[in-house]
Amino acid sequence: MKKAKKIAVIGAGLGGAAVARLLQRSGFDVDVYEQASTFSRIGAGIHVGPNIMKIFREMGLEKELTELGAEPDQWISRHGQTADVLADANLQNYGATYITVHRGDMHALQIESLDQQKLHYGKRLEKVEQNSNDVTLTFIDGTAVTVDLVIGADGINSKIREILLGEEAPTYSGWVAHRALIKGEKLKKLEAEHQLDDCVKWWYQDRHMMAYYTTKEKDEYYYVTGVPHPPLDTQGRSFLPSNHQEMLTAFEGAHPRIQAMIEASEDITIWPLNSRNPLPIWSTGRLVIIGDACHPMKPHMAQGAGMAIEDGAMLTRCLLKTGLDDYETAFKLYEHHRKARATRVQTVSNANTFLKQPENPAWVYGYDIYAEEIQSLQDIRNS
Ligand SMILES: Cc1cc2nc3c(=O)[nH]c(=O)nc-3n(C[C@H](O)[C@H](O)[C@H](O)COP(=O)(O)OP(=O)(O)OC[C@H]3O[C@@H](n4cnc5c(N)ncnc54)[C@H](O)[C@@H]3O)c2cc1C
Q: How far apart are CA 183 and CA 190, in angstroms?
């Protein structure tokens, strides 16, 4: 009997967990290898646009995810000093719900949806040996597995990207993001004294602050900033602790609502924002990359994870179309269908212009990856 082909996903972040769920539901034999020993609920929110919710529908998780988040009707852009509305984009009529949610809650739902026997924590990938028949992956704990295909969903410092294109550190964008939550009595007091928008981006001088609720009950409010900043030495960590004084200095002279949000927030963290130029190739042999491994971006459009999840959905469609034996065509097809859109989002996100002025966001939110007609295999093979 012919042995079933094995797929390894490296990284169980938002993109890795999505592609693993979609592939497992499609009947593929998929194991996920994650370097972390566990995941915790770090204080951060995330937008899930209708383009992404359509993929959670395919994962069978749409209802559960919608139950976790708030449903803002609009994305409002405000002047950071006067609070004047610069733009107000409708978020809700694109074929699925738009939610804002705690990132940890969404990720936990994704992780729980995976086959738990096939989710392996504490597996930091160290070495990859590929030949014409298979790929052997060696982890830092000394264990090794041999598989047929490898999906690198291992984030901005991807080991798989390094094998495709060589060692190269990502570029510091010159910007940081501060992140913090507001809860309990402090949120009640803030709401009593200020009119909080469900989803708002404050544009202040050369910087901004995005704020929104992260739960259905609206008992948790979150902000994330974009602030120009000299390079930070994080000693390999993704973030460092920040504090009220640093934030108040960064937003000195800004609207009183911004000041009040800073005063009310807890456990402020500061994240350097790194990026890469669009990559010339997305796969080599039996290895392919998705998400931040492939097209990291500044988070100013709130679509970074969205692009990772869209990648996972398209890659699954392509593998279903070709079958695993013809993975080379699947990988070409995947890149063909993803590159233009992911690069456009990456460019707009890095430029930080999205919804600063009135514009129609339908090209982002109205997109349905399952409605896209897949290119003929013959054309792709000949390209
Ligand atoms: C401040 C900030 C705010 C953001 N806000 C939003 C938002 O609102 N909406 C949105 O869509 N996006 C947002 N993003 C972007 C989003 O977080 C990323 O684009 C997204 O997490 C990328 O998913 P990923 O799965 O590709 O990578 P990651 O989520 O980084 O996951 C990579 C995983 O791989 C694991 N890993 C790494 N190396 C190895 C290895 N060698 N072996 C095994 N495992 C490994 C890591 O531990 C991790 O679990 C934001 C980002 C930041 C920094």
A: 10
Domain of residue 333, CATH code: 3.50.50.60
Helix (H) or strand (E) holding 245: helix 244-250
Q: Which residues form the domain of 291?
A: 6-41+114-169+277-382
- Among 292, 345, 352, the mutation site with the greatest number of ligand 1 atoms within 8 A of its Cβ is 292
Ligand 1 lined by 282 (C-beta under 6 Å)? no
Query: Can you spell out the DSSP letters for 179-193?
Result: EEEEEHHHHHHHHHH
Whether 279 contacts 339, CB under 8 Å = no
CA dihedral 341, 19, 45, 170 (to 10 degrees): -60
Asked, for residue 283, whether it belongs to a domain, the answer is: yes
* 10-residue stretch averages of pLDDT, the chain, 383 residues long: 84 98 98 95 91 98 98 98 97 97 97 98 97 96 98 97 93 96 97 97 98 97 98 91 96 98 96 92 97 95 97 98 96 97 95 95 97 90 85
Residue 93: C-alpha distances to residues 51, 118, 277 (Å): 11, 37, 33
